[in-house]
Amino acid sequence: xxxxxxxxxxxxxxxxxxxxxxxxxxxxxxxxxxxxxxxxxxxxxxxxxxxxxxxxxxxxxxxxxxxxxxxxxxxxxxxxxxxxxxxxxxxxxxxxxxxxxxxxxxxxxxxxxxxxxxxxxxxxxxxxxxxxxxxxxxxxxxxxxxxxxxxxxxxxxxxxxxxxxxxxxxxxxxxxxxxxxxxxxxxxxxxxxxxxxxxxxxxxxxxxxxxxxxxxxxxxxxxxxxxxxxxxxxxxxxxxxxxxxxx
Length: 247
Prior knowledge:
By secondary structure, the protein is of the alpha/beta class. The protein has one domain: Rossmann fold. Helix content is about 35%, strand content about 20%. The chain is built from six helices and eight strands. The protein has helices spanning about 45-55, 80-90, 95-110, 125-135, 180-195, 220-240; strands spanning about 5-15, 20-25, 35-40, 60-65, 120-125, 140-145, 170-175, 200-205. The protein has an eight-stranded mixed sheet with strand order 1-2-4-3-5-6-7-8, with helices on both faces. Strand 3 (about 35-40), helix 1 and strand 4 (about 60-65) form a beta-alpha-beta unit. Helix 3 (about 95-110) packs across helix 4. The longest helix has 19 residues, at about 95-110. The chain is globular.
């Protein structure tokens, strides 16, 4: 579907911590809705760019901000796990909120797409970042988290902030993911349910961490990945449908 994208580009966004680059994918017809794609622990790499284009092919403006912009690192290879861990470990609530807010301001000011017409979709570290943004930024359209560790445990855990979430949230977790054990999945689901958040949560048998990342063949699980993406597209069509075009 990526070949249907009208245009892709890198843009520079202003944040209080300096400029932040972002990868943007425009759909063939001008978009009235957007998806922020938040990166894995390896930066806005080819896979994250591909995901951003997938959203554009489905009629959303896709934008992937570079959450590593404070570090001087742009991307890491998947084999550089040890180098990636301290980078994401240093990114807590405040920088995530700063960067997502900057991306939302860009969408509203440059593309005419407000936060209420924008969803956040995060993967791995970006899943934690997406959940964090949902707890701190009101008025988003929806949040989709693919296998986000560190939400319920760890130095940047934010599950206790679940009552602040005011938009629907969709969670995808592999049953065999050691970074998000069953007790943490239960803690997240329980907190969101008690907070009366509009929640859809799925655990995929036979799938581990990064099961939807087709750039990592040893982790990728095609059937759970297809199911998770189909549920994701349906979820956003329910909560962020295209508006009737007036121009």
